[in-house]
Amino acid sequence: MADVENLNSVPASEDTEYGFKRPEMYSTNIANSITSYARHVFVLYKTPEAWLSHVEEEGLPQRFATLLKDRKSDLLVQTKLNVCEGGGSDGDVLIFPDMIRYKGVKDTDVEGFFEDVLVNGKPWSSGIQEEISGTFVFVCTHASRDKRCGVCGPVILERFKQEIGSRGLSDQITLKRCSHVGQHKYAGNLIIFCPDSAGKITGNWYGYVTPDDVPELLDQHIAKGEIIQRIWRGQMGLPGGEAEKVHEQKVIPNGNGVVKEESKGFTGGCCQGSNGVSCCQDETPKPEPIKKEVKKCTIWFQPLDKEELYIGAAVVGAIATIAMAFTFFKRSG
């Protein structure tokens, strides 16, 4: 138990300013604090200790970020980019919710990769597409960007490692440190990609996470597909209004703030963060009003032109003349 207590805390000198005891914790309603997007790309690159404050401004991440910005109108769906720790796997690319991994993408490969995979939705012609499975948990530990995630993230990560190990889930859950996901004031921040109750891969964001929340995230969200409402930030693929609907669903009577996750098929919207693709959120078009067709009679009431009127008058006149002549002839006889 002493180990767990150590994992639950940060140095007292930092806890009240940057850690879990800082005054801003739980001060904001964080539901729907992400903008909508439909695809998440993670580039494996170095380690958090080596990242710049804006890690997307160097190397391989920069190549991806530049193309995402310049070609946002060419993308099939709204896409967000993040960096996660690489180590010996630098250059690998993970794509969610597709659950796909490409290995060893180099700087010179990015343009072709981007065209094939992200623009045209096809397998990369110069690499091998690998399917990935299980649950992926990304914890923001981007200390060079903001010290709050630098203090809270590693502690949450260590608690995850311990709980995953004690449950024998190491072969089912992949845990990675990632770059800035937006709103460091909500630290600890994390994203979980796992199947929902219908088997569909969803990406759910959490904020104000503490080490004490980790067992519940494993036992409720990952194991049962139940959203932990009190620390939930939103879900990949849900436009803003739909995210609010999920958050506002009726709470379980015992007040534990857990909401059953539903499988939604929404895409579109705008990406979170400075390096995601920004665009206006797609709205569901309103149905066109039903127009009743009025059938017109085109035989007897069709307008006549001048020539037709003259001919008609002549015919009528001729008939009248013949009738009068016949009447006169009959009387004279």
Give the helices and strands as they follow along the chain: HHEHEEEHEEHEEEHEEHEH
Radius of gyration: 33 Å
Give the CA-CA distance, first to last residue. Answer: 137 Å
Instruction: Specify the structural class.
Output: alpha+beta
Task: Pick out the low-confidence regions.
Answer: 1-5, 240-256, 261-309
Overall form: globular
Mean pLDDT: 78
Describe the main β-sheet briefly: 5 strands, mixed
Strand content: 15-25%
Major β-sheet strand ordering: 2-1-3-4-5
Overview of this structure, please?
It comes from Arabidopsis thaliana x Arabidopsis arenosa. Keywords: Membrane, Transmembrane, Transmembrane helix. InterPro entries: Aim32/Apd1-like (IPR009737), Thioredoxin-like_sf (IPR036249). The protein is an alpha+beta fold. Helix content is 30%, strand content 17%. A five-stranded mixed beta sheet has the order 2-1-3-4-5, with helices on one face. Strands 7-6-8-9-11 form a five-stranded mixed beta sheet, covered by helices on one side. A hairpin with a 5-residue loop joins strand 8 and strand 9. It is globular and about 90 Å long. Mean pLDDT is 78; it is low at 1-5, 240-256 and 261-309.
Question: Could you give a short description of this structure?
Answer:
It is built from eight helices and twelve strands. It has helices spanning 2-7, 12-18, 59-70, 110-119, 147-166, 214-224, 240-247, 306-332, and strands at residues 39-44, 79-84, 93-96, 100-102, 129-131, 135-140, 173-178, 190-195, 201-206, 226-228, 232-235, 258-260.
